[in-house]
Please model this.
Amino acid sequence: MATGKTYDVAVIGAGVFGAWTAYQLARRGKGVALLDAYGPSNSRSSSGGESRIIRMGYGSDEIYTRWAMRALPLWKEFFERIREPLFHQTGVLWLAHTTDGYESQCVATLGRLGVPIERLSRADLEKQYPQFDLGPVTWGLLEPQSGVLTARRAVQAVVEEASKSGVEYLNAAVLEPRGSGKLASVKTRGGDSIHAGAFVFACGPWLPKVFPDLLGHRIFPTRQEVFFFGVPPGDPRFEPPALPTWINLGDDEAYGMPDLEHRGLKVAIDRHGPPFDPDWGRRVVTLEGLEEARRYVGHLFPAMKDAPVVESRVCQYENTSNGDFLIDRHPAFENVWLVGGGSGHGFKHGPVLGEYVAARITEGGAVEPRFRLATKEEMQHRAVF
Model:
């Protein structure tokens, strides 16, 4: 597989972060190699799977709201250019349990930044979305322009377009680089060498495996279960636009999506699961996880009580200590970048993160302090949702 050439940049990892970084570098005229052990948006990756939410609300955390505001038009422009309808504008509905919680912070931040929103009273919710049993929900916040990205297909499309722009995709697993100073090449498990002027390791849950001493206690892959429930036959209440994507940060800490492309109602509990190995972890859902998801769906949607599971999936988050991204140089190598820590919310930001990393590599400039390696602790204290 050895190419016998030196690239401007080698990007290791063809998930959403790596794919967009390679694509943005190519658009800046750089010669780029993009490597992945299993393939773009493969079933082991954090970017694999059918769908990911794109929403603007991040409480009072303005940095991620601004990034999401930039990311959505970039995704839409990209999909329009390739003529693939991979964004579903379902709207995103936040179900609020208190008057002064996270959702109220979203209202303040989104209002200040000019994001279109609708605040819905309990009576408004009951009238507009009668399929819900709202229980303790007291009001709702709707982001009408937000929605769902068709994840796996979107990443594969980015890689395909990157290849058309000159990026060379290589199917290879990369070993941990050794030494210090300026890295000249990386070795693959197959014994080949990839030479480049700069390297970006955007390996997601594999980052702590590639750099065990540096990141083994700073990136925490966790096991997450996702379920798709079959909707009642001929019932349009669970399809968009009748049902939006929803986020429920109450006791259940759950989110879900309507019946998109007839795949079923998607539901996931958003609490961090146990530690998980992306190569060898058992990707079969547990009975406990299934029963919790089934109870949640039955309570929230009475018409879905005892609905059949039509699909299930085990994926993973790769969490940093608090949920902030990791974007920084490797402390031992001046030309090696560490990019990851999507922490369950990173997918939507792919285009902006790619821009950001490409700009740091080609133009220099300081890294946002929250993204720096020095801020990544060895104990988890989730702060970004």
